[in-house]
Amino acid sequence: MNFIFLTFLCISTLASTQCYTYKCDASIDAEYCAITSNANKTYTLRPCENPKVCDFHPENTFSSCVGHVGVRYPGEYCKDYKDCISGNCTNDNCEVENDKCSTDAQCSYGYYCNETTSKCSLVKKENDDCTTKDKCDSGLACGNGKCVKMGSLEVKSHSLSPGACKSFYTYENECAESPKLKSDSIPSNGPVKCNNGCKYSSEGKSDFESSCSCGYINGSDLYCNPGIGDIEISDVILSF
């Protein structure tokens, strides 16, 4: 759930004023899986052979196929240390080495990477004390210094995490109404077209603007991402 409200809080956008076109071409140099042409505003792609994947970086002219390395979590089967996110394969299992970590993905299930100690620590349980640096168990979030059920705090409640709020949004550490697109004519279906940026409002408390975004459909218009309070996002959050 965390990634949902974080993704739409940030409202990831592109600053470009013209969208790039995607096209497939299996005949491009086998050394590459993607070629970016800024002049023609195109991304030319070809598939990689299994088990390799395309390490696609749109800002680079050329992107290459790479081995599927370091994608398995602690407890999963491995043949080599390169298979594991933790970099430690013991007895055919990915394991955490001396509890050391730099990311949560390097820790076993039920643990998180403690920023202070750089070691895996048990996640906090419901009603445990917490700070913004602590991680609460699945289905919980850090509210007013305690791990509480996600989406349980009313608007105007103090909260260290937007996930603890029913609105999944905070403003100055207080649960606030979720931001929605400000538009005089939002269509009943389809994306909101964007020309001069996107404007959002949360009861007037935290009005902000964001640049237009590009879709993946060739020839698509620039559009505005919905806010957390818009039905396209709120319905998804409530379905979890």
Any key phrases for this structure?
mainly beta, four-stranded mixed sheet, 4 domains, 7% helix, single chain, disordered N terminus
Please, could you describe this protein's structure?
This protein folds into 4 domains: 21-66, no CATH class; 69-122, no CATH class; 126-176, no CATH class; 179-238, no CATH class. It contains 2 helices and 17 strands. The chain has helices spanning 2-10, 231-238, and strands spanning 21-24, 34-37, 42-45, 53-54, 62-63, 65-66, 89-90, 93-94, 111-114, 119-122, 140-142, 147-149, 180-181, 192-193, 198-201, 208-210, 223-224. The protein has a 4-stranded mixed sheet, with no helix packed on it. It has a 3-stranded antiparallel sheet with strand order 13-15-16, with no helix packed on it. Residues 1-16 have low confidence and may be disordered.
